[in-house]
Amino acid sequence: MVQMDGVERSSHSSSEAESATRKDHSTYNSGEYDDDGHPRRTGNLWTASAHVITAVIGSGVLSLAWSVAQMGWIAGPFILIIFAFLTYYTSLLLADCYRSPNPISGKRNYTYIDAVRTNLGPLQVRLCGFVQYTNLWATAVGYTITASTSMVAIKRSDCFHSQGDHSTCHVSNNPYMVAFGAIQIIFSQIPDFHRIWWLSIIAAAMSLSYSSIGLGLGIGKAFEGGHSHGTIDGIGIAHGAAQLSRGRKVWQIFQALGNIAFAYSFSAILIEIQDTLENNPPENRTMKKATLIGVSTTTFFYMAIGCLGYAAFGNSPPGNLLTGFGFYNPYWLINFANACIIVHLVGAYQVFTQPLFSLIENWASKLWPHSSFIHNSYAIYVPLYGLLPVKLFRLIWRTAFVLITTLLAMLLPFFNDIVGLIGAYCFWPLTVYFPVAMYINQQKVAPWTSKWVWLQLLSIICLVVSVASGLGSIEGIYQDLKHYTAFKTRY
């Protein structure tokens, strides 16, 4: 391990004026640096699309069959399409906020919070920061739960295969959460978002793989005879084993809305993804195309998996599609699909946590600008990677973050409820409210014009949806806690 004298690329907390002092005009012209003094961005349409697909297709896809089942064959697919449209539409608004005041040639906003600060002011920044970074942290908790669920599914699948379908095969997911956390401690030492493009491409490939497997298995089981293929109104109050009280059905519909919102959640890191793009063509144009590719791809899989999963299991769907008992054969294919989920979530965890890592490290750098503990880098050789720059503060802080996140996942291992709560919490403020408010400010949309009224009405409706889905998920967690013992629950 050797100390490094070079300065790593920051997460863009410095201003353009500060950046400009680092290099003279001739250096900018060399092509090694962008107009703001940061190392030249090399991202393109395909890397951005990979980031989007990695961020969007996550653990949320596994709960879609359950979500569609709560609403039935008409409302379920319709709600999926509505959420896709809302996500795409507000992402277009957000992409124009990367540069201000002009979306083509204005000053860069390196992060989501920078865009809010430029367009909405300091009070909104505090609200945005709290929502965005707690959402990123909560998503890391959710991904830890989901990855361990897939690891448990592999273990149980092997057990059922060797001991028979009627065996108990109970497995605790705690050791698997610890294992996933240990992997994330290692990957979390990657310095910044710009170094993980390759991880996003691998993760995107994995997400498409397990989604395709789930799709294929859903098709196969849906065409089997002898079971229900669902109903127009979904799980109701008179469907045998799936019977629900009227009140419980309403709560589960609310929770399903949160699950779908979570499945489409990536707005919190859209600006960070856009900041990886080269500026020719303009970043907002590339990002809009990447968003169209990403949302279109994921919506196709979401519709197929949600609907075919519902057709496969009818009104008795599993909360997690690939851990449903009916999918333990062929066991080797299920094991491969769950392995793909695990690999995907390793990458997705980093996509969502890198902005949070950067926030804390930039804050510490400003507070203690001369601290060797914070600023000094040491080069460690990592097989298959090369020299990895390591800072002691980064090593300790990121390791502590992963440990705390893993502990919280072990305390609340409720897949569907946690997914729904996260989706409800972040959907309105990050996907709708801030993009709409920033767009209105940047484009100078006059109050009470038709466009202003449409945008405000959209925001209000989505707020109501977020509140309802959040209440549904909280009620679900309350019901789960009645039958749960911390660290002792087995599956």
Give a verbal description of the structure:
This protein has 16 helices and five strands. With 491 residues, it is mainly α. The chain has one domain (41-481): Amino acid/polyamine transporter I. The strands form two sheets. It has a three-stranded antiparallel β-sheet. A hairpin with a 6-residue loop joins strand 2 and strand 3. Helix 9 (246-263) packs across helix 15 (415-442). The longest helix is centred in the N-terminal third of the chain and has 42 residues, at 122-163. The radius of gyration is 23 Å and the shape is globular. It starts with a strand and ends in a 10-residue tail after the last helix. Mean pLDDT is 80; it is low at 1-29.
Order of helices and strands: EHHHHEEHHHHHHHHHEEHHH
The appropriate CATH architecture is Up-down Bundle
Query: What percent of the residues sit in helical stretches (DSSP H or I)?
Result: 55-70%
Total domains: 1
User: How many strands?
Assistant: 5
Report Rg: 23 Å
Structural class: mainly alpha
CATH superfamily: Amino acid/polyamine transporter I
Residue windows where pLDDT falls under 50 for at least 5 positions? 1-29
Q: In what range is the share of β-strand residues?
A: under 5%
Overall average pLDDT = 80
> What is the third-level CATH name, the topology?
Amino acid/polyamine transporter I
Order of strands across the biggest sheet?
1-4-5
Largest sheet properties: 3 strands, antiparallel
State the separation between the terminal residues, measured CA to CA.
43 Å
CATH class: Mainly Alpha
Q: Tell me the number of helical segments per DSSP (H or I, 4 or more residues long).
A: 16
Shape: globular
